[in-house]
Amino acid sequence: MAAGKSTIGKKLARKLGVKFYDVDDMVVTEHGPVSDIFYAQGEQQFRKYEYEAICKALDSEPGIIALGGGAVTYDESLKVLKKRAYRVFVKVPPEQILGRLRRSHTVRPLIGATPSLSKIKELYTARMPRYSHSDYVVEAQDMSTAQVVDQIAQWLHKKNIKL
Question: Which pTM does this prediction carry?
Fold first, then answer.
């Protein structure tokens, strides 16, 4: 949630010369705006669409996949990601997320039009057990996008992970 996953993912994919997949964009292309799906069909249906998009990306050519912040809350998504992908958590503190959300023009369905630190912390706390099981965690609080991209690329190289 507002950790910069899409921006980082695009830049990392470009640096590595691989394809980039944005799961939210894939869902929007197939089913319409995220907020419309949440309001008309509910979060559970959105998570199913998200899972389908994740599977489609995993079945395509290798690359970088940017997930929505809540993707790993859906058990099937987490299961397939654990089995078929390397998972990187870009860890940004809730206060920084709040600042980013306040500057954003996108309304996040689980946060609402007026983001609050308490709501962000509530979601963050609920999701943290799933985030913390990532293969790699980037403590990104004081890092630029370029630094985060470089750190992930270095980790991939060190682990001899080829995409």
Answer: 0.90
